[in-house]
Amino acid sequence: MPSGGLFARAIDTMFSSSDTHCVDQIIARIDAGDESSDHLGTLRAKCDVPVAYDCEEDQEFNWYFARGQKLVRQENWEQLGQEIRQFDDMRAMTTGGTPIACILTKGAREDILSPIEKALRDKDGLPRTAGFAEYHEIMREYSTDYGIAAILAYAHIDAGWAWHDYAPHGDNESFLKTYRRHFSLAQEILNNFNALELGSPILASAQCAALPGLTNPHLRAVDDYEDLLNLDPTTPRNFFNFGMHLLPKWFGSYDLLDTQARRLIDDLDIIWGNGAYALTYTGALNHDLGAIEKMDTDLFLDSMLDIFERRTDQHTINYYAAFVSLTLGDHSKRKDSKTLRRKRHKILEAVDYIFEEHLNEIHPLLWYDAAVTVNPNLPNGDENFQKALGERIALEIMASRKRG
Fold first, then answer.
1. What pLDDT is attached to residue 237?
2. Beta-carbon-side half-sphere exposure of residue 367 (alpha carbons within 13 Å)
3. Of the candidates 190, 124, 191, which has an alpha carbon nearest to the alpha carbon of residue 155?
4. Whole-angstrom Cα distance, residue 236 to residue 304?
5. Are 195 and 267 within one domain?
6. What is the sign, positive or negative, of the torsion defined by CA atoms of 147, 149, 153, 158?
7. Exposed (0-12), middle (13-18) or buried (19+): which is 375, by Cβ within 10 Å?
8. How far apart are CA 33 and CA 4, in angstroms?
9. What's the whole-model pTM score?
10. Mind listing the pLDDT tens digit for each residue in 110-155?
11. How many domains does the chain have?
12. In this structure, are residues 84 and 200 in contact, taking their beta carbons and an 8 Å threshold?
């Protein structure tokens, strides 16, 4: 367990409110004097929920990620492309709902992306991009293999975001030019394939991910996501990304977000009941709480129950427990209108039901990720640090709710 001082310094700016269940107060209790193993043991006993440091979702993700990376290092591109296409055709996903084909492509592009991201992050000169030339050579050799195409398209999209996110303030035009160039290359690759004709969710997903690089993405965003959701209406991440891209800061508006979320209820009621509404809004709220102004909170809560009926895995339950507790929780930097605060508090009360009826184990990385939505300046540390912090936050929140 990291030192209490590090915990406190990491998140002390998140907190201060008179609300009994305020996230600020909970996390603020994580200080140097509260870091004893006895205190942690007391929290664990009070909450009486096991912590899954190596949950099934993480194991599956790590296995398929390593598989994709291994096949690239062995230069076994034919096998890799075949496996991506097979899992894509099967709509196969992990226990927590992550498409396996997407994980394979992520592992397959890791070796060319990680050095670029590290060089940009550490400001260690301009990164070497020779790996992309090699991948393009492979693409020419396997020109009809859309599994290989998906790897390269996503590699360019990820590289583009790396150049965008690490662009220096002020004189950043060269970085943004490279960002646009990578997205343009991704689009060129995707233009060679038709996701609908191939029945390929991973290509449709890549097309949606490439939207920020288009000249007028708002003209096609809804249609592109409609294609993706027709091909794969069962993956929660597709709805999350759609909700995010429907925000005013991207390609939509709050009115369009609400219209599309309600449309998806009718289109996908056989699969999700009302669940598509909450899935879409969740993606938006993760990036902009202003979206709650248009949201029907009663419908959102009803929709969330439909999700829990269909996604009973603990990954999904932890995701929503952390989302409601932290992303929608109280803290000192909230600048809510009265309407927004009232709606947010109504949803926040549902967390007790999630804890009591659905949460059977804690997945600490999901809690850490949700905490980052409250304070993006939380230290990264290594994965063990993130898990330790995530566990402590989850236990403190659950214990506080029990006291309430």
1. 97
2. 28
3. 190
4. 12
5. no
6. positive
7. middle
8. 7
9. 0.90
10. 999 999 998 998 887 778 888 899 999 999 999 999 999 999 999 9
11. 3
12. no
